[in-house]
Design brief:
single chain, about 375 residues, alpha+beta, FAD/NAD(P)-binding domain, 6-stranded mixed beta sheet, 11 helices, about 25% strand, globular
């Protein structure tokens, strides 16, 4: 089996397939498997896949265990509501992870387990069929029993599997940066909310640094992707009306990445004969529920499980899509709602929403956390095959 893309989803899928005895090769176009500096949140549903791959303790040793998600009034710094992650219970840790650490762990484990990772392998297209073929940029081609497109947002595999639809700009632009933790930031994901914008901060590694993702509503944007940097003063100006803690955090941002947020429809079909899509190649996810990496991990496990237990490849790929598509749609829709809720302007609507959240988290913290049971308690590694 051949996986195109050496990111989180591709490497996790390779490891899951390897546990079933499959012969797997990962093709990565870069000269080495690395990640630019960025953080991510691995919630219990994604961590169960990491656990099933035998990597839970190794990842936890490099991560910060999250204790809360704190929703805050961006202008005053006052806490509006808190999601108490310590109530998740046994074996339901919530980790703040440096993306590079997770990629490094997955890739080193894959190599140690005999999975081939071939670098500088740029695919340009795929021909589905009983024996799918991959076209390479150097003019060569590779045949495989199964081809898995885990090649992200700008997938070269997706157009050969399903009709592509143009994404639309959400009216939001995001910045990201990693800065020193000089504010004594606790092991919480803090969501600093304000009119038309919000900022998420949480500590990484030993807690000495903070991951920062800031989002602002805008009228126009043209580019999509993470390769651009912005003047940090532009970022600071966008959050000038926020409290002193936000100012101190942003004062340390040097060259923040910036990108426009585009909404991509979930692919109509995730598979063609002998070919499947995984993660962002099938369903790019906006970053408002911290589930992009977690959905890729869940996809990886289900795809490997389906291939291991179905009678035919086509039956396996169809089962994979059936098992995943509804859940992914629910997650994506929930993420989109979060964006609206974070950006409420002062007035009766925001007052009512914040008051209700505050009362719920104060007097019924269990119910507050229970609103996310459908997301966090989901265990894809024990899911029944239908």
């Amino acid at each position: 089996m051949t996986i195109i893309g050496g990111g989180i989803g591709g490497l996790a899928c390779a490891l899951a397939l390897g546990q079933h005895g499959a012969d797997v090769t990962v093709l990565e176009q870069a000269e080495e498997i690395t990640e630019v500096g960025a953080g991510l949140q691995i919630s219990p549903n994604g961590l169960r896949v990491i656990d099933a791959l035998g990597l839970r303790d190794a990842l936890a040793a490099q991560s910060v265990r999250g204790q809360a998600v704190s929703l805050r009034n961006g202008e005053t710094g006052a806490e509006v509501a808190r999601l108490d992650l310590t109530r998740l219970g046994e074996n339901q840790s919530y980790l703040f992870v440096h993306r590079a650490d997770l990629i490094d762990l997955l890739s080193k484990t894959a190599r140690a387990r005999g999975i081939g990772i071939r670098l500088l392998q740029k695919a340009t297209g795929v021909h589905p069929g009983d024996r799918p073929r991959i076209d390479m940029a150097n003019g060569d081609h590779r045949d495989a029993d199964v081809v898995i497109g885990a090649d992200g947002l700008h997938s070269v595999v997706r157009p050969h599997v399903t009709r592509t639809k143009a994404p639309f700009f959400t009216g939001q632009v995001a910045w990201r940066a990693i800065v020193p933790n000089t504010t004594g930031h606790p092991p919480h994901a803090r969501v600093h909310m304000g009119p038309g914008r919000h900022m998420v901060t949480y500590p990484l590694r030993d807690g000495a640094s903070l991951n920062v993702v800031a989002v602002e509503e805008r009228r126009d944007w043209t580019a999509e992707g993470w390769s651009q940097t912005d003047d940090p003063n532009t970022l600071r100006a966008a959050f000038a009306g926020f409290d002193a803690e936000v100012h101190q955090i942003l004062s340390q941002a040097k060259a923040p990445g910036v990108w426009g947020l585009f909404r991509h429809p979930v692919a109509d079909r995730w598979f063609a004969p002998g070919v499947a899509l995984l993660g962002d190649a099938a369903h790019p996810t906006l970053p408002f529920l911290a589930q992009g990496a977690n959905m890729a991990l869940e996809d990886a496990w289900v795809l490997a499980d389906s291939l291991a237990h179905a009678v035919t490849v086509d039956a396996a790929l169809e089962a994979y899509q059936i098992r995943r598509k509804g859940r992914v749609r629910r997650v994506i829709n929930a993420a989109s709602r979060n964006a609206r809720n974070y950006h409420l302007s002062p007035g009766p609507v925001r007052f009512a929403a914040h008051t209700a959240l505050g009362l719920l988290s104060t007097y019924a913290p269990g119910r507050m956390l229970g609103r996310f049971d459908w997301l966090y308690r989901y265990d894809v590694t024990r899911e029944r095959r239908g």
